[in-house]
């Protein structure tokens, strides 16, 4: 099987794509892959380093003033021509787009050449690229009921994020061992994405000062950019507050902490539900179409998480919420149980089966 995978711009598009490809390799040792993305974003560095074939398209999003949009539209038309050449050279059996504007070029070109196509939508709000491609593709895979309801029912399946399969199959460590915390002591992990959040950090400076006197440990991820500032300002905190700049094994912490406090990125929530963790979500309001809040509301409505909007976030409210949850084990257990019900630990397997079905109908 020969597969072109396109995932452009952000890790939220790229890492689910990589997870699916890694799974397919375990099922079909002869499968060949070609990644198509941008020439200058995250995927253009990471994918070649992992040993995969890679082709970059010089495409831009349709943003900016009218003149810039017109210029980018011409660039897009040029990328369609280049995409057709890539398709003719690689001769894929199927093309799968995971979002980001490069996906529009290669998936649209494949559709015009009658090559089977599939798109994957990670968020509850359908991204612009996938909106453009809805009528052109053979199969649509999504992760949230809200998105599923908006896609055509005859070709859409709700199968989840491939990252969910990865975290449920990897070897997980215990937070108590990682941070030398007594085994029965409760723990809270707070992480606002890999880069951190300056706005949340400001609130957490006061919150952490209150939390240091409580009977639990806190792992607070500042983000690399803010670590030195936070470390200096909070140098007087006691040993129950652990400030770190970055965590490279979030699944281990998610699986073994009592509460995970996080943003509502698609990959993060897929991991939280797959691992059945109790979570307090603070969605980022600085994202396209406010999609993180909609992602989070899917969990909240299913009683699988609690949420504080950033505009409502204060130190007192945050600390009060944490204390309430930690003192009510039945509430934590309920959040975990409902999170498990939403989890899609077999996402990779299920998506792979849909790929095979799509090719059978060719």
From TrEMBL:
Its EC number is 2.4.1.227. It catalyses: di-trans,octa-cis-undecaprenyl diphospho-N-acetyl-alpha-D-muramoyl-L-alanyl-D-glutamyl-meso-2,6-diaminopimeloyl-D-alanyl-D-alanine + UDP-N-acetyl-alpha-D-glucosamine = di-trans,octa-cis-undecaprenyl diphospho-[N-acetyl-alpha-D-glucosaminyl-(1->4)]-N-acetyl-alpha-D-muramoyl-L-alanyl-D-glutamyl-meso-2,6-diaminopimeloyl-D-alanyl-D-alanine + UDP + H(+). It comes from the Bacteria. Keywords: Cell cycle, Cell division, Cell membrane, Cell shape, Cell wall biogenesis/degradation, Glycosyltransferase, Membrane, Peptidoglycan synthesis, Transferase. The keyword Cell membrane applies. Gene3D superfamilies: Glycogen Phosphorylase B. UDP-N-acetyl-alpha-D-glucosamine binds at residues 10-12, 123, 194, 247, 292. It is a peripheral membrane protein. It is found in: Cell membrane. Its main location: membrane. Pathway: Cell wall biogenesis; peptidoglycan biosynthesis. Belongs to the glycosyltransferase 28 family. MurG subfamily. NCBIfam families: murG. This is UDP-N-acetylglucosamine--N-acetylmuramyl-(pentapeptide) pyrophosphoryl-undecaprenol N-acetylglucosamine transferase. The gene is murG.
